[in-house]
Amino acid sequence: MKRTLVTGAAGQIGTELVQALRDQLGDEAVLATDLRTPDPGHAIRAGGPFAALDCTDGSALQALIRSHRADTVFHLAALLSAVGESRPQEAWRVNMGGLIEVLEVARQEEVALFTPSSIAAFGPDTPRDPTPQDTIQRPSTMYGVTKVAGELLCDYYHTRYGVDTRGLRYPGLISHSAPPGGGTTDYAVEIFHRALDSGRYTSFLAADTQLDMMYMPDAVRAAIELMEADPERLEHRNAFNVTAMQLTPARLGEAIRAHLPAFTLDYDVDPVRQRIADSWPDRLDDSAARAEWGWSPRYDLDSMVEDMFAHLGTPQSLRQE
Ligand code: NAD
Ligand code: SER
Questions:
Q1: pLDDT per residue over 190-224, tens digit each?
Q2: How remote is the CA of residue 174 from the centroid of ligand 2, in Å?
Q3: pTM beyond 0.85
Q4: Among 2, 128, 161, 164, which is least packed by CB within 10 angstroms?
Q5: What are phi and psi of 259, to 5 degrees?
Q6: Which residue ranges form the domains of the chain, and what is each CATH number?
């Protein structure tokens, strides 16, 4: 991997992945693209090349891959779970319409392709704890349907055409650089900002709703390590379970309270997002990722919370009981 193009680069993952790739490969080697053009001061524009790109436009993508001489594409453009449930037809159009275009261009231009899947690729019939690498996948959301179909489509392009497709089933991702894009796990980011703004947060998921989570530096490292892994060892190349910690709103609230003793957490459950969360695993088994390419998270709950507050700051007033 020497020169990369990132779709959906202005989002929660892209903002940090682009920076990590530029740190590793050099600023000019990483072309950030997105449907929306961020402000000139945004890191992905200020720190290197940026181009506006709708991922469903294969011709435009192909022209950019050629002019940038990219050898690897990180395809992050998608609509997430909660947005996808509010606009299911658009979620199919962007998530699947975009992916088939990106795969076709990857085949023609012989570039490697990273595509994230999700815990959303599982459903209410899936064993929940632990959720095996290979198991029942009958999701009940449009987002989940596009994630399963995407895993299968990437497998197809690898076996049929030899495209070097790789992917991870990410859990909920927690980060400080960019806001989340409309998912069910967004509470785990919002809670930090509200804790600092006002000292309180109202969770839209119930107190004991357990989901897999990961801190963004681990998520970014996982994507890069997977794309650098020895292909001979990758049996599950497009859909590796990966996880770092299992959180509930109550458990995360306790960890925040250790830093901000006056923090108050209450609940006003959103039935749509609660139903989505209730259909997802409690704990992924990520042993295939560990065995096939050496996956290992570096952040647990306590070190993640510590690092979030180190970046977001902790007002003195909120530290006092
Ligand atoms: P995000 O919503 O923060 O960012 C997605 C970006 O895609 C946005 O900047 C948006 O402008 C862009 N986009 C939307 N439609 C587009 C189009 N037609 N063409 C080009 N760009 C378009 O999402 P994210 O959290 O960065 O997620 C990136 C990928 O990772 C997605 O495939 C998502 O399903 C997956 N994922 C994310 C999480 C998470 O917790 N963040 C967890 C599991 C999987
Ligand atoms: N964090 C994502 C969501 O909630 C999971 O893919 O949609």
A1: 999 999 999 999 999 999 999 999 999 999 999 99
A2: 11
A3: yes
A4: 2
A5: -95, -35
A6: 4-170+216-241 (3.40.50.720), 173-213+243-318 (3.40.50.720)
